[in-house]
């Protein structure tokens, strides 16, 4: 299992340098205990209340890579403090990344209060998605009433009936990504449309598409 180590101290004081080094050493030991293959070690000196941190932004970008399955931290406060901590926990767990901590000598166990807040956030997001889908359904119904025929606009509709769809609508993946969906959520959405596709495949196809556009 591949993982990323994240270490943070709150100030630039020289006395904190030893703490940063100690975190790294302890997390490397934790990785060895759990047989993790470390892809990257991210260290930074910044306030946990601040979201505009180079290290944490790099971490959030790296966990989108399909091979990354876990993040190792000293404890949840190393990710952030206050509302920043909740936001970051939600983002990381939403990407289906496991968190391991030294404090728990294994997989991170959230406090009852943190778990409750994250459940509420997830519930709100779920209802936002449902509302979004209701609006799309309503708009589609109105479009059909005014002569729109979706079968003329969907490629390969009806072909290879009963078989898994090999090709996926990359433009739709791009649109969903720009709307803020994670690769896991996009894969789930595509499967709902009948496309047999994994999170890793969605990520690969998306990267290929972006690279092609850049060229």
Low-confidence stretches: 153-166
User: What percent of the residues sit in helical stretches (DSSP H or I)?
Assistant: 40-55%
The strand order across the widest sheet is: 2-1-3-4-5
How would you sum up the major sheet? 5 strands, mixed
Beta-strand percentage? 5-15%
Explain what this protein looks like in three dimensions:
The chain is of the alpha/beta class. Helix content is 51%, strand content 13%. The protein contains 7 helices and 5 strands. Strands 2-1-3-4-5 form a 5-stranded mixed beta sheet, sandwiched between helices. Strand 1, helix 1 and strand 2 form a beta-alpha-beta unit. Helix 6 crosses helix 7. It is elongated. About 7% of the residues have low confidence.
Describe this structure in a few short sentences.
The chain is elongated and about 70 Å long.
Describe the protein's topology:
Elements: E1 2-9, H1 15-33, E2 37-45, H2 54-62, E3 68-73, H3 82-94, E4 98-101, E5 106-107, H4 112-145, H5 170-178, H6 183-192, H7 199-214
Parallel strand pairs: 1-2, 1-3, 3-4
Antiparallel strand pairs: 4-5
Helix pairs in contact: 6-7
Pick out its properties.
215 residues, 5-stranded mixed beta sheet, 7 helices, 5 strands
């Amino acid at each position: 299992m591949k993982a990323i180590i994240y270490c943070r101290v709150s100030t630039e004081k020289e006395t904190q340098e030893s703490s940063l080094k100690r975190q790294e050493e302890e997390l490397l030991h934790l990785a060895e205990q759990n047989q993790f293959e470390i892809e990257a070690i991210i260290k930074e000196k910044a306030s946990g209340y601040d979201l505009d941190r180079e290290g944490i932004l790099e971490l959030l970008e790296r966990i989108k890579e399909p091979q990354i399955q876990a993040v190792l931290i000293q404890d949840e406060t190393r990710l952030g403090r206050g509302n920043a901590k909740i936001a970051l926990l939600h983002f990381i767990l939403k990407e289906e990344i496991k968190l391991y901590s030294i404090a728990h000598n294994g997989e991170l166990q959230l406090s009852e209060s943190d778990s409750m807040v994250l459940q509420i956030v997830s519930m709100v997001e779920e209802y936002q998605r449902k509302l979004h889908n209701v609006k799309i359904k309503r708009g589609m119904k109105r479009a059909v009433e005014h002569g729109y025929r979706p079968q003329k606009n969907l490629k390969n509709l009806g072909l290879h009936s009963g078989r898994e769809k090999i090709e996926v609508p990359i433009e739709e993946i791009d649109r969903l990504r720009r709307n803020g969906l994670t690769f896991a959520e996009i894969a789930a959405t595509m499967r709902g449309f009948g496309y047999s596709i994994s999170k890793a495949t969605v990520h690969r196809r998306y990267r290929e598409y972006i690279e092609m556009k850049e060229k």
